[in-house]
Design goal:
Layout lengths: L1 H11 L37 H14 L14 H6 L23 H10 L10 H8 L1 H34 L4 H7 L6 E2 L10 E2 L4 H10 L2 H31 L14 H8 L5 E4 L6 E4 L2 H42 L4 H5 L1 H7 L1
Antiparallel strand pairs: 1-2, 3-4
Helix pairs in contact: 5-6, 6-9, 7-8, 11-13
Length: 350
C-alpha cells in the first residue's frame, strides 16, 4: 500500500534531476553605492533576474531623450516614438530557445519542457523557476492558482457525492411519487384565464424527477459545506502566502518602487505654479499637487461611477420584472396553444 501511494506521489512530483530545487537566499533591494554588501558572481549577467533586467531596460527606454532641442520637453521615451509611428511596438524578449534542437540549457526551455507542455498537466508547478523567469508577481499568481486548484478537489468530491446521492434516491422521493401516480388522476386548474385547459398533475412527473437530482436533502449539506470551504480557503491561502513570502524574501515586499512617470514629470515641469515635495519613501523631490486637484476629482469620479452602476442595477431588476409581465401577457394572448400553455416556461427560459 505504501508503495502504491509513493508511486502516485511521484506521478505528480517534479523530477529533481531535471529541475533541481532552489536554495533559499537572502536578498535585499540593490544599491550600487553599497555594492560591497552584495555577493556579485563572476558572470554578472546572472546577478539580476530576467524580469529585473527587463524592468531596467524599460526604465531607460521610457526616459531616454531623442531630440537635441532643449525646448521640446516631450521628446523622450519609447512610448512617444511608438505614438509618432516610428516604432510599432516595444516589449521584452524571451531569453533562450525552447525548441527541442536547442543545445544550450536555459530556464525558458526547462519551463516549456517540464511545466508548460501539455504532457505535464499532472505535474506540480515549479514555482521557483516561474518566479526566476517571470518575476515574483507572476510566480505568486501561479502559486495562488495552484492552491485554488488543490482546494477545489474536496469541493468537487463532495459535490460528486451529493449528485450521486440524488441520482440514487431520486426514485424514492415521496412528493415525486405522488406527482407521477397516474391512478390518482389529479386534475389541476388552468395556468391562465379563459384559454388554458385543465391539466393532469402527472404531466409534471419528469420535471419533478429531474429536480430531485439537484434539489434534495444532500444539497443543504453541500451549501453549508461550501460556506465553510470558502472560509477555509481564505485562511489556508493566507498561511500559504506567508510561507511563500518567507521563502522568496517577500515579507517586506513593496509592490514596486515606481518613480513618477516621465510624462507626468515633463508636464509638471511646464507648470510654474507646481511646488515640489519630498517623497517619504525615496526622499526625492517630486512635484506635488494639492488635495483639491488630485483627490477631489478622483472621489467625484468614483462616486459618479458607483451611483451610475447602482441605478443601472435597479433599472436591470425593474426591466426583468417588466419583461416577464409583458412576455407572459403576450404569450397568453397568442393563438398558438404551445405558447399560451407554456408561457411561464418560455418566459423563464428567455
Amino acid at each position: 500500500m505504501a508503495g502504491v501511494f509513493q508511486r502516485v506521489i511521484n506521478w505528480f512530483a517534479l523530477d529533481k534531476s531535471l529541475m533541481p530545487p532552489f536554495n533559499k537566499q537572502f536578498t535585499c533591494v540593490y544599491n550600487r553605492h553599497k555594492e560591497y554588501l552584495f555577493a556579485i558572481p563572476s558572470n554578472k549577467e546572472t546577478f539580476f533576474l530576467n524580469t529585473q533586467r527587463s524592468m531596467v531596460v524599460d526604465y531607460i527606454l521610457r526616459r531616454k531623450r531623442f531630440s537635441d532641442d532643449p525646448n521640446d520637453n516631450m521628446a523622450f521615451g519609447i512610448r512617444k516614438l511608438i505614438s509618432d509611428g516610428f516604432y510599432e511596438a516595444a516589449y521584452p524578449l524571451h531569453e533562450g530557445s525552447w525548441k527541442p534542437k536547442s543545445l544550450k540549457p536555459n530556464v525558458r526551455k526547462m519551463l516549456y519542457d517540464h511545466w508548460a507542455h501539455w504532457s505535464n498537466w499532472h505535474k506540480l508547478q515549479p514555482l521557483d523557476y516561474i518566479r526566476y523567469y517571470f518575476g515574483a508577481k507572476i510566480g505568486m499568481y501561479f502559486a495562488w492558482l495552484g492552491f485554488y486548484t488543490y482546494m477545489l478537489i474536496p469541493a468537487s468530491i463532495v459535490g460528486l457525492v451529493v449528485f450521486i446521492y440524488g441520482l440514487v434516491t431520486f426514485q424514492d422521493n415521496v412528493p415525486s411519487d405522488d406527482i407521477c401516480n397516474k391512478e390518482w388522476n389529479i386534475t389541476m386548474c388552468p395556468q391562465c384565464d379563459n384559454r388554458c385547459p385543465f391539466w393532469n398533475l402527472n404531466e409534471a412527473c419528469t420535471h419533478s424527477r429531474v429536480s430531485r437530482l439537484f434539489d434534495n436533502g444532500a444539497t443543504v449539506f453541500f451549501s453549508i459545506f461550501m460556506t465553510f470551504w470558502g472560509t477555509f480557503f481564505l485562511e489556508f491561502w493566507k498561511r500559504q502566502q506567508a510561507s511563500i513570502q518567507y521563502q522568496w524574501n517577500l515579507i517586506h515586499f513593496e509592490d514596486e518602487e515606481e518613480p513618477p512617470r516621465p510624462e507626468y514629470l515633463a508636464r509638471m515641469a511646464q507648470n510654474k505654479n507646481i511646488r515640489c515635495k519630498s517623497n517619504p519613501i525615496t526622499k526625492l523631490q517630486e512635484p506635488h499637487l494639492p488635495f483639491w486637484k488630485t483627490r477631489v476629482p478622483i472621489f467625484v469620479f468614483s462616486f459618479s461611477i458607483m451611483l451610475f452602476l447602482l441605478i443601472l442595477a435597479l433599472a436591470a431588476v425593474f426591466g426583468v420584472v417588466a419583461y416577464r409581465m409583458a412576455i407572459v401577457a403576450a404569450l397568453y394572448l397568442s393563438d398558438n396553444p404551445m405558447f399560451y400553455r407554456n408561457a411561464s416556461i418560455i418566459t423563464s427560459a428567455t
